[in-house]
Write a structure and sequence with these properties.
Elements: H1 3-42, H2 51-82, H3 84-88
Helix pairs in contact: 1-2
Amino acid sequence: MSPEVFVDVLRDSMFLVILLVSAIVVPSLIVGLIVAIFQAATSINEQTLSFLPRLIVTLLALIFGGHWLVEKLMDYTIRLVNSIPSVVS
């Protein structure tokens, strides 16, 4: 295996990890920011208030985006397995 192939596989896998994680984390960050702005505007200093909306949004992102996440992961795995003969020879 040449170093270029290894770098390409590593780059593709890192891009996939960033894509999959950001699809789950970004909605939670947005809701956390909205709740933090609401807390600052109303002077409510309750730490647990931001936890439940972020948890719900994260679960909804997994429910609605789960099919897409698994599809991306399966496509990458199939592409990686199919490239084994060309990399080995």
